[in-house]
Design goal:
The chain has about 400 residues and is mainly alpha-helical. It contains 18 helices and no strands. The model has no long low-confidence stretch (mean pLDDT about 90).
Length: about 400
């Protein structure tokens, strides 16, 4: 009972911090927020995803979430921020459960407390951006995969397919992660063939929930579009002769070619993919150099000057809340390989997402969905260090390793 009361307090604490913070924000801080609000209006008017014309450049998950949460007779922005603050409360509880079940009760408690107060997660919960929803859905998918891998029950097969498909409908990155997670499940089920059927059921649920998006695109554009028509532009933004930073800001890292302006949406996607791969094949050294810069951009200590959020205040907040966790998280990440059967979903999430953004474009914003796992691994790394100090005499070898 005490544990349940503590979790309720933790939930409301995380929610209140986020909601109160959202009241201090101006209407919109980023251009993407305006785009999402225009998409919301388009869906409300029965025009579907249009900006300004019917498009497949954006997945439908977040616009539909906005439609759902703005159905009450209150100002749209207030409703969105209220519900995203609730998502933050749920995320905090989920971090507790994941940390406790994979590692220990101490890891669950410490990681959930950090998540409740973590400034970056609080900040993004107040923005009309897909990060808050995507972070929660992706962690639900990771949690379901973990539970599914422990018992291969039909209940967790269904939930894994559900959360995986919903996460993929918000951001396509999950579609690159999911096949690897299911592959690991197949490998672990080879000795017990009865586990194969639940895995196939989970894949079926995943496909059924995701397929309306593919069918819609086929009916509207007469092409097979698995994710969006924006992938080519994003790939080209991060891999073109002008790019020197690893970012994807138009006018800084890339310029939209005049020859592509009169192409259709599908043709533009194909054009940019072709141009990007031509650049990568003809400049492998430059591609490798840009990949390193993208890695640094994703995991950098504070916002870049081009982000618009590089004031001293933001730099100090991120520096003092993010930098101290890095060594603990690294120790937790590499230590977790020893228990790969339990931790493979965490390891693959961090690894695949980082690798993808090293290929496309890098930004601090893209690490937001990784932060809950980053925090859990940091809590586990901290536990490893403190348990080493409590139960063992720290040798010179251990000190060198920790350093």
């Amino acid at each position: 009972m005490k544990g349940k009361i503590w979790l309720i307090i933790l939930f409301f604490l995380a929610f209140l911090i986020r909601f109160i913070f959202s009241l201090t924000l101006s209407p919109f801080l980023f251009p993407d927020e305006v785009t999402y609000m225009k998409m919301l209006e388009s869906v409300r008017e029965g025009k579907g995803l249009s900006y300004p014309h019917l498009t497949a450049s954006m997945l439908p998950g977040y616009p539909l979430f906005l439609l759902l949460v703005t159905s009450l007779p209150f100002p749209d922005l207030g409703e969105i921020r209220f519900f995203q603050a609730l998502l933050g409360g749920v995320l905090t509880l989920l971090v507790f459960l994941l940390g406790k079940e994979i590692f220990s009760l101490r890891v669950g408690i410490s990681s959930s407390l950090i998540t409740a107060f973590y400034p970056t997660l609080v900040f993004f919960s107040g923005l009309v951006l897909s990060e808050s929803l995507y972070t929660l859905l992706t962690l639900l998918f990771i949690f379901s995969i973990y539970r599914f891998s422990q018992n291969f029950s039909y209940r967790w097969a269904i939930l894994t397919g559900l959360w995986g498909s919903l996460s993929s409908l918000v951001r396509a990155t999950t579609l690159s992660l999911a096949p690897l997670l299911y592959l690991v499940l197949f490998i672990y089920s080879l000795k017990e063939r009865k586990r194969i059927l639940p895995i196939l059921l989970s894949l079926f649920i995943f496909s059924v929930i995701y397929s309306p998006w593919v069918i819609r695109n086929w009916l509207q554009f007469h092409h097979f579009i698995l994710t969006t028509t924006d992938g080519g532009w994003v790939l080209y933004s991060g891999n073109n002769p002008m790019n020197k930073t690893g970012g994807g800001i138009e006018g800084v890292d890339v310029i939209f070619p005049e020859e592509a302006r009169n192409l259709s949406e599908i043709e533009r996607d194909t054009y940019f993919k072709k141009k990007a791969w031509e650049f990568i094949k003809s400049h492998p050294g430059r591609f490798f150099s840009l990949s390193i810069k993208k890695f640094v951009r994703v995991w950098r200590l504070y916002p870049s000057p081009t982000s618009g959020m590089d004031s001293l205040k933001y730099r100090l907040i991120m520096l003092f809340t993010y930098a101290p966790l890095i060594p603990f998280s690294l120790i937790g990440y590499f230590s977790s390989f020893k228990y790969f059967r339990k931790t493979f979903s965490l390891i693959l999430l961090v690894s695949v997402f980082t690798l993808l953004h090293m290929i496309f474009i890098g930004s601090i914003r893209y690490r937001v969905p990784l932060l809950p796992v980053f925090i859990i691994l940091a809590a586990y790394g901290g536990e490893k260090i403190f348990s080493l100090g409590e139960h063992k005499r720290i040798s010179l070898k251990n000190l060198i390793f920790l350093a």
